[in-house]
Specification:
Oligomer: single chain
Structural class: mainly alpha
Number of helices: 5
Order of helices and strands: HEHHHEH
Number of domains: 2
Distance between the termini: 94 Å
Number of strands: 2
């Protein structure tokens, strides 16, 4: 009897294991075989026409901002020199008032310079995001066209067969679809 009970328990365990294993087998069968595509986004972002356009615009805007700040700094220096020359003529109260006004203008200029840098950084991030969004759509399209179901960043790999590399195709398509991106900065 003891033997029969143990046999029944063993059979029940086997049946339970088979029932539990069957869904995992069907799940494993539904997972497709990986077809891998490799892209080098660092190369794409470095060589894309749209990114070159963004860099050129950012350089121009930065130069414009720097020239604006330099003009205002020069103006502050001239005002400071004039105030120093008039120190003997001005009453202590008038001198202190002019000095405070000059310090306020200098502080305002520092805030303006920081604001311009922040605006430029945000404009750069926004423009680059436009390129990244388009790049993702292109990568998805190229992957579907080639039957790839996994796309891997080249920098994350130790080795991949060159036939898995689609960087040049993605870059060419990105250049064809998006050659420029306008960098938008707040006016004022």
């Amino acid at each position: 009897m003891d033997w029969c009970l143990r046999s029944c328990r063993a059979a029940a365990w086997m049946a339970a294991l088979l029932l539990l294993a069957t869904p995992s087998l069907s799940i494993a069968q539904s997972i497709p075989q990986p077809v891998v595509m490799v892209i080098d986004t660092a190369k794409i972002m470095a060589e894309a026409r749209a990114m070159n356009s963004i860099r050129d615009q950012i350089d121009q805007i930065r130069s414009s901002y720097q020239a604006e700040i330099k003009r205002e700094e020069d103006e502050l220096r001239r005002a400071d020199q004039e105030m120093a020359q008039q120190r003997q003529v001005l009453s202590p109260e008038a001198f202190n008032q002019r000095r405070q006004e000059l310090q306020q203008r200098a502080s305002a200029l520092q805030v303006k310079a920081r604001t311009r840098r922040t605006q430029l950084d945000q404009a750069l991030r926004d423009a680059v995001q436009v390129v990244r969004n388009r790049l993702l759509k292109i990568v998805e399209t190229v992957a579907q066209r080639h039957g790839a179901n996994v796309v891997v960043q080249k920098s994350d790999l130790v080795y991949a067969d060159d036939r898995m590399e689609f960087t040049d195709e993605v870059l060419a398509q990105l250049n064809a679809e998006l050659s420029t991106v306008t960098v938008e900065t707040p006016r004022g």
